[in-house]
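Hi P.,

Sorry for the delay on this. The queue was packed all week, but I finally got your sequence through. Input first:
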Amino acid sequence: MDASATQKFNKLQIKLVHLWKMIGQPDQPGSEHQQAENTIVVIPSMSIDTDFKGMEQQAYEERFMFMLFLLRQPNIRLLYITSQPIHASVVDYYLSILPGVVTGNARKRLYLVSTMDASSKPLSAKLLERPRLIEHIKSLIPNPELAHIVPYNTTDLERELSVRLDIPMYAADPRYFGFGTKSGGRQIFAEEKVPHPAGTENLTGEPDLLAAITSMRAARPDLQRVMVKLNEGVSGEGNAVVDLAGLAKDAKAEALAERVRGMRFESAGVTYQSFLA
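Then the structure:
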């Protein structure tokens, strides 16, 4: 993103200070916000280091549908964006369990938008490829001054989408994205002296992995197994377990490499080479 776009994003984010007072606040009689319609654009894009395709991707995108509970507030307008259309029965179910709300009223304030794209690209990337769809989303926002994006996670894709839609993003600036990864979290804990599991961060291949496990075994010779995590994996699907039980303390490098190459993956269908990649 160029300097001008970054500057625009920073200005948009300042609007969140005012919006924060309105987000999640129940209507109060006589409140200055009672008649102000706040538009929330939900973009559950899986912009992470994992491939999700078809219905698997759709299932993750629909996990954010708890956001529909914000429709309990009569001044909330919700735009929910997905790769593929959400089945009507799923929408009806969520609306039917809204407490104290007439379903028909909530339905009028819910707008579902789909890219009609089942590819494994992140939803945000699909939207950025469709300028007319972005314009359509903008047309559904009556007042951009009272609107914001709620993303699943924040990368440069979501930041660019925020600028293109001309509304702020209810999330941290993606320049801080690294602090939210597995390695980033470990680094922060170490710097602040917060107790955390033994391990090594920022590994980039098999040599790093072997060196890390060798170091851990030197510090803890009784180590029976270690867990390897993809830095941006979610729901445990980026995890794998290396079994070290019975491995001699002075085992040769090749013996350890054999254990590593035989790691057990949490997600079915993953191979060692694809995991390393």
